[in-house]
Structures are given as structure tokens and as C-alpha cells.
Backbone:
């Protein structure tokens, strides 16, 4: 696991409060960057996943899909934690094939607690998580898309669809947990993304309570653009197209951060910070480079 230096207080001041919203590997990458400049971070995670291990556990146990939550916990866990490494370990054997250990533990904790937030908090305590990981809503939701081909339901199905015009959730008014709304209201910085635009980013931020809290947030809202379009979900999208779709869904970033060496910029309608953000292989954000840019955008 990557070593991380501990953020320190500057002139005795408290560390900045940062909320990061999204899902999947993209949000985990953001969290690895954020923990380099603050110890006060809250991850707000999409719970629309219906594929793979998460989908199987969701259907079998009627619990929150644990996969994206687990990824965020591991990203914020104590550096060098063997338990965090074990949480990411995926089984190959028979009935357990495809399940990550952390998914099973987290599903069991949520079920035993009788409350997903309490179960997630307990998993975070076990892992020594720096910060807090919260679901965007405390009830399972189904992601729907309106696309050129018609209506599509389910995150996996939406991921395989192009020319998407709009996404929504079923039920349409899932409730955001109170700690989510409180964290956003107190944040010095709200980060959205990166990640698959429709199936990770918007799946979290269009929860009504989350969307309203972001609109009212006193801290600067920063959209972190993907390094490339997601095939086929956002095939051909520029950074400007990503921003336009956020605006169409009622999400208005104060600034957009992108790497123009990896994705076409277009003409975004928000202020833009361009920087070299990719790892050497170009496939993911480099946490050190991303942290430097984000720390400069506090306020």
C-alpha cells in the first residue's frame, strides 16, 4: 500500500474539511490525493451498483452494494494495513468466486447493525480509516437512463449504453443521510468525481439531498474530469460535454480540473484548471499531482 505523509496543522489552524462525491475507482483515487493535504475528509458514495459481487450481495441480502464503499475505505485506511489489503482480496473458489473479502465483511456488518451507516462506520473503525465513508442514500436505488435507444434501467445496463440524455433514480426521492448533508454544509471544499459520469458521479450527486446540499455548499465545488471518455457511456465526450451534462442535472461546479493531454477540452462553461494529472501509464490520476492542484483550490 502506498505510503502517505500525515497532514500537519498550519499555524495551528484546523485542517480543511473536504467532501468527495462519486463512486468506484475514480472516487478512491480522489481520496488518496485528498488525504495528502487534510485529515478531515468525508466520502459520499453512490449505492446504485447492481453488478458483480456487489449486485449479488445486494440481491441476496437486501443490503447496500458494498463494493464502492469498500474501495473508498481501503483508500482512506491506515497505511500498510494488512486488514485493508485483505479487504481488497478477491476469492476464486466456487460459491465465493468474485467476492472481495471486504464486500462480505461490510455486508455482514450492515446487516448486523440494522443500519447501513452504523455498519459502515464500524468497518471504518476496524480499518483505521482517516475520515468517514458514507452512502449517498441509505436505501438501495436503481439507476435509470434516457438514451437515444429508449429507457435503460440498472447501472450495468446504463454502463453499456451510449448517447445518454439524462439519468435518474428509482425511487426518485431517496433520502440522503443527515451526516452527508451536514458534512457538505461544513465543507471548505466539495469534490465531484472523477469517474464514469452517469454511473458513478451523477448516480451519487443527483440524490436530492446531496444535490441541494452541494448547491448550498459554502466551500468551492470542484469537478474532477475523467482522463478519457468512458466507452460507450460517454463516447466522444470532451471536458466541456461532461460539464454541460452536470449542469443539465442541476450540478454547477465552481471550477473544473482536467488533464488536456489525455482528453479534449472543448469550451467548458466553468473556469478550468489544466494540469498534468495522469500517472506515467496514463490510465489513472496520480495522487501526488492531484493533491498539489486540489490543495491550491481550497477556499
Residues:
Amino acid at each position: 500500500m502506498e505510503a502517505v505523509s500525515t497532514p500537519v496543522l498550519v499555524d495551528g489552524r484546523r485542517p480543511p474539511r473536504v467532501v468527495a462525491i462519486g463512486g468506484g475507482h475514480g472516487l478512491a483515487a480522489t481520496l488518496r490525493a485528498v488525504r495528502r493535504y487534510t485529515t478531515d475528509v468525508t466520502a459520499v458514495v453512490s449505492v446504485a451498483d447492481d453488478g458483480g459481487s456487489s449486485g449479488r450481495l445486494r440481491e441476496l441480502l437486501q443490503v447496500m452494494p458494498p463494493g464502492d464503499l469498500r474501495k473508498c475505505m481501503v483508500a482512506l485506511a491506515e497505511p500498510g494495513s494488512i486488514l485493508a489489503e485483505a479487504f481488497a482480496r478477491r476469492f476464486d473458489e466456487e460459491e465465493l468466486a468474485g467476492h472481495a473479502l471486504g464486500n462480505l465483511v461490510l455486508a455482514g456488518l450492515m446487516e448486523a447493525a440494522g443500519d447501513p451507516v452504523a455498519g459502515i462506520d464500524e468497518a471504518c473503525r476496524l480499518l483505521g480509516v482517516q475520515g468517514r465513508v458514507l452512502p449517498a442514500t441509505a436505501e438501495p436505488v436503481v439507476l435509470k437512463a434516457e438514451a437515444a435507444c429508449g429507457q435503460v434501467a440498472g447501472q450495468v445496463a446504463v454502463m453499456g449504453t451510449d448517447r445518454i440524455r439524462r439519468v435518474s433514480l428509482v425511487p426518485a426521492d431517496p433520502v440522503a443521510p443527515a451526516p452527508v448533508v451536514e458534512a457538505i454544509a461544513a465543507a471548505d471544499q466539495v469534490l465531484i468525481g472523477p469517474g464514469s459520469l452517469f454511473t458513478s458521479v451523477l448516480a451519487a450527486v443527483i440524490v436530492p439531498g446531496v444535490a441541494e446540499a452541494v448547491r448550498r455548499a459554502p466551500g468551492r465545488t470542484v469537478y474532477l474530469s475523467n482522463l478519457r471518455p468512458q466507452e460507450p457511456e460517454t463516447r466522444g465526450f470532451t471536458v466541456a460535454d461532461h460539464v454541460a451534462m452536470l449542469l443539465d442535472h442541476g450540478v454547477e461546479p465552481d471550477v473544473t480540473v482536467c488533464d488536456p493531454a489525455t482528453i479534449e477540452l472543448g469550451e467548458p462553461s466553468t473556469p478550468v484548471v489544466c494540469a498534468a494529472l495522469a500517472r506515467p501509464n496514463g490510465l489513472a490520476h496520480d495522487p501526488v499531482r492531484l493533491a498539489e492542484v486540489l490543495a491550491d483550490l481550497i477556499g
Summary: The chain has two domains: 14-46+151-299, 51-135. The radius of gyration is 18 Å. Residues 51-135 form one domain. The first strand starts at residue 17 and ends at 22.
